[in-house]
Batch of 3 targets.
Target 1
Amino acid sequence: MAWQKVCPLEEIPLLGARVVEHRGERIAVFRAEGDTVFALRDACPHLGGPLSQGIVSGSGENARVTCPLHGWNIGLASGEACAPDEGCARHYPTRLASGEVWLEL
């Protein structure tokens, strides 16, 4: 696996996301409260809704995104659906260095 620079942090809206593509897969890179950054496959584990278009809330380990199609909450730190829902969106490691967002692919 290798680290890939995504963009400067300020190019991702606070409580929003930016989509990058890698080998035909869409990856949503989220910016939560406190400028914490997370990345998940841009598909809800329920019916594949675009998580990048969901509402981001919380910070740190409690950050989550709400799927815009059916309201499922997905933990950004793990990709796991929040109870009572079940399922997982693929999670990608991220890091923030010198104001730049990096994604491990």
Target 2
Amino acid sequence: MNPIAEDLTRTVLLGLMATAVMDLWLLLLERLGIPTLDFALIGRWVGHLARGRIAHASIARAEPVAGERALGWITHYLTGVAFAAVLVAVQGTGFTRDPSLLPALAVGIATVAAPWFVMQPAMGAGIAASRTPTPWKNRLRSLANHTVFGGGLYLAAAGIAWISR
């Protein structure tokens, strides 16, 4: 495999695997009775984006979009790959060969900016969930989820490095 294709493959795998780690975390929370995001709502938002509508008073009350759950999951995983690409762009392609925890956690934590400052406001929840009944609880949940994603970036990179040796 040529070096560019190998680096691209490693980056895509990194994003997919880290997102899967986050999903396992969300599944655990769900099993413990802690509410998590319905990815159909992300798909609904993305579906409306394609129609030119960015912001909603409440995405839950917006008109449903055909295939919104699948669209939400695809968006979720593509976003994970994009965030992994940011990590690799900042740390260099060597990160997937010799990963370290701190940069992965830092990028994971930084990704919480996306829901706080883009998605939540656009979906009607306000900046950093300020319009929700329990904003601080929701902020901490988002921060925890994205910290787990950062841990997933490290674990995925370590797994990729181990397998490729």
Target 3
Amino acid sequence: MKAAKATARDARFAILMDGDLTPTDRLRSQVAGARAIAADGGMRHAAALGLEPEVWVGDFDSTPDELLGRNGHVPRHDLPARKAISDGELAVMRALEAGARSLVLCGAMGGARSDHMLFHIMMALRIARERDIEVLLTSGTEEASPLLPGKPAMPDWPAGTLFSVIPFSPLSGLSIERADWPLDAVEVAMGSSLTLSNVSADGLRILLGSGTAALVASFDV
């Protein structure tokens, strides 16, 4: 008997991470119907997003007893506290092994540890480039996504959204159409603020010729 083909729902995963999260209507719509995996303290976001994680990954050394008790029915994958990879990355790896083609990393953009946020963005860039997988990082009030060379980005942000293109390498051939500050095939040095704090209009389109970059957008709530 042939195995059934994966459905769109089977291919989209929400990874619940332990950063700040505001459960906006936009975020709820982005994860509606997705399979979910919780990474340690990220389980605290499940109820607000209407998600039931199929597995809970973590070392649980700092997870409150109340959260553990309330979600004791969720299958757990216990990990050692001392390990070479974060709980969040291990949760992402589990989703990829399960056939994920789209990832929404919830709680990946905020929190007390800015180093975690930077690693999440770099991980998303690597996954998108190596596996051709859509990755969205979100806190509900802020989103980030990889900008890949040769693939036009046409975000569904409301007109007036504040956004930046963050260069993680020198960029070439960067064009931005339908924004307050349009650009036409420009070069951007790594670390330049040229692409900081733009404002989108309807029909925003962004194209990168070469380089490594991420889009970051902020939303009024």
